[in-house]
Amino acid sequence: MSASQTYRTLKLSENKLEIVNEQVGESNDAQLVMKPILAGICRSDVKEFLGTRTVRHDFGHEILAEIKSRSINNSLLPKVGDLVVLDPHVEIDRSSGFGELIVASGSTESLAKAFVKVPASVSPERLVFIEPLACAHHCVANLLKFEQKQDLQSLSVAVVGAGMTGILIGLLCRHYGAKVTIINRSEDRLGFLRRTSIFSDDELSLFGDIEQEFDAVIPTTTFLFPEVLEFSREIVKDSGLILLYGGTKSGDKFPNINNIAIDDIRRNQRESTITSKGKSFKLCGTHGATTDDFKSVIKLLENSSQDFAVEKLIGRRITLDGVPKTISEMTKKEILGKTIVEFDL
């Protein structure tokens, strides 16, 4: 591929989205050039646009792409023609996933770890969910670790928040044997889920309709506001577990317990036993994903695909030109389902 090739890509700068022309330049490091097939818009992309994401920045990271060229021949790197998804937890230099091309550079080892080869036998509409599924899998793997179990048989699990992350965590918990309830404050997301038939009616509930307590509660809302944590405390069983997944920032505390720093617990994936309002329960954290999570999710999509009909969660398909308007819309109103960006092959 010519080093002077020009491509259109979405640039985020100072809360402004603009499609600009860039060139595939040369790099002193190893370099991969990819053609995206599908890209998902994540809530973290919206957070980055708003300037409310405080730690890692990986705008446009839910990527399914085909390798078009590589600067060196190395057995570690994916080959030309391979399909890959991005693990955004690996530090590399790259252009946005919202572009006609994706150009990435870094050490050979970093590029090999960041771009995970995926099987062409799985549909693109499922493969584009691998990154968010890997993060959800990491959450469930931590739940198994904190519960000291090999599976979730006989456990009741409440997932608080019916956003995309909550849905994927719910699917994985159910796959590993839990009795799952997806809980949301309003009916709109639950109605969307009912229309997909991914969950049954008795697996979906409004906040105000919950009349039971759960072995494990996983709050997955965009931010873990005090009212979300208070609700999680209300519905967890005595001797149960709350697993923090949703967004936190430095200084956040558990309601009415000033010595429990939930941001530290979540980001460092720690556990702490606390007593509050007559209950004693474990408060645990989960954050990010690992290479093993990506590998596990790929195997699940290959071998247990009937449990993960995630393509039903696609609510809207757009082109690159529609991305700026769509992300701006997502700051103002709810767009149900996953928005997928399609690229010409």
Describe the structure.
Helices cover 28% and strands 32% of the residues. It has ten helices and 19 strands. Strands 3, 4, 5, 6, 7, 8, 18 and 19 form an eight-stranded mixed β-sheet that branches. Strands 11-10-9-12-13-17-16 form a seven-stranded mixed β-sheet, with helices on both faces. A two-stranded antiparallel sheet has the order 1-2. Helix 4 crosses helix 5 and helix 4 crosses helix 9. The radius of gyration is 20 Å and the shape is globular. The two termini are 16 Å apart.
Topology, element by element:
Elements: E1 6-13, E2 16-23, E3 30-40, H1 43-50, E4 62-70, E5 83-86, E6 93-94, E7 102-106, H2 108-114, E8 115-117, H3 124-127, H4 130-147, E9 156-160, H5 164-175, E10 179-184, H6 187-196, E11 204-206, E12 214-219, H7 226-235, E13 236-244, E14 253-254, E15 257-261, H8 262-267, E16 271-276, E17 279-285, H9 291-303, E18 314-318, H10 323-330, E19 338-342
Parallel strand pairs: 9-10, 9-12, 10-11, 12-13, 13-17, 18-19
Antiparallel strand pairs: 1-2, 3-4, 3-7, 3-19, 4-5, 5-8, 6-7, 14-15, 16-17
Helix pairs in contact: 4-5, 4-9
Keyphrases for this structure?
single chain; 32% strand; Quinone Oxidoreductase, Chain A, domain 1; Rossmann fold; 28% helix; 345 residues
